């Protein structure tokens, strides 16, 4: 049955207008984006199939064009539209982060880093440089590596911090194929960076590890040195 034949109070679009987006399930929100289904499936049915196929919205958003288009009813046009929506969301979060006090708005920083890093197939190391008043100066991708290892050089991070005249920094990197838990190497690197940056009076305020569907804060876990 087409969604237009459903009772009005059950239609996702009408429910969103009446109750707000938070009242809708993941599949219902996705159905509004899809707009139409395929023969024998409503947009909600197709959305449920997509969420089930990729596990959750994070898995769906991380899917490649080939993976997404393998589902009947989804083609390159929908993939392009989804990427555009995700990029607009990332840019909106970036604008929020750049105008916010990073310590008073930690969730904005975390959300931005998750959206930016969780979908990448390769490992990257990012630094959020801050003023002494914790205002964001810049978000720089500093190193890029393989799926399992990134070479991070403390000297280069110190040079970039001095170039920005930063008073603090939030570090972040992703685990594309793993969990958001710190390895012994992650702990050792964080300590080395904190010690190197302390020599030029730059504080490491946090280190986030981002994995598909999850993230970890060194500060929250008491792992900062």
What does this structure look like?
The chain is an alpha+beta fold and 225 residues long. It is built from 9 helices and 5 strands; from the N terminus they run αααααααββαβαββ. It has helices at 12-19, 26-34, 43-54, 57-62, 65-69, 76-99, 106-117, 154-163, 184-198, and strands at 124-130, 136-144, 168-174, 203-211, 214-217. Strands 2-1-3-4-5 form a 5-stranded mixed β-sheet, sandwiched between helices. α2 (26-34) crosses α3 (43-54), α6 runs antiparallel to α7 and α8 packs across α9 (184-198). It is elongated and about 65 Å long. It starts with 11 loop residues before the first helix and ends in an 8-residue tail after the last strand.
Structural class based on helices, strands and sheet pairing: alpha+beta
Oligomer: single chain
Shape descriptor reads elongated
Helix and strand pattern: HHHHHHHEEHEHEE
Produce a short descriptive summary:
The chain is built from nine helices and five strands; from the N terminus they run H-H-H-H-H-H-H-E-E-H-E-H-E-E. It is of the alpha+beta class and 225 residues long.
Which terms summarize this structure?
single chain, 225 residues, 45% helix, elongated, alpha+beta
């Amino acid at each position: 049955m087409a969604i237009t034949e459903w009772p009005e109070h059950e239609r996702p679009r009408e429910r969103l207008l009446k109750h707000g987006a938070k009242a809708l399930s993941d599949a219902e929100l996705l159905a509004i984006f899809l707009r139409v289904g395929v023969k024998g499936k409503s947009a909600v049915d197709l959305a449920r199939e997509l969420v089930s196929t990729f596990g959750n919205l994070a898995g769906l958003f991380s899917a490649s064009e080939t993976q997404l288009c393998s589902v009947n009813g989804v083609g390159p046009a929908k993939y392009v539209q989804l990427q555009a929506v995700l990029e607009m969301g990332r840019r909106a979060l970036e604008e929020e982060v750049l105008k916010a006090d990073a310590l008073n708005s930690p969730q904005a920083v975390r959300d931005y880093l998750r959206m930016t890093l969780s979908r990448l197939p390769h490992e990257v190391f990012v630094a959020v440089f801050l003023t002494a008043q914790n205002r964001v100066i810049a978000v720089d991708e500093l190193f890029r590596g393989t799926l399992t290892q990134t070479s991070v050089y403390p000297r280069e991070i110190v040079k970039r911090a001095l170039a920005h005249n930063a008073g603090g920094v939030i570090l972040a990197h992703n685990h594309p194929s793993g969990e958001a838990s710190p390895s012994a190497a992650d702990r050792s690197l964080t300590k080395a960076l904190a010690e190197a940056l302390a020599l030029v009076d730059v504080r490491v305020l946090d280190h986030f590890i981002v994995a598909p569907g999850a993230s970890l804060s060194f500060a929250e876990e008491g792992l900062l040195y």
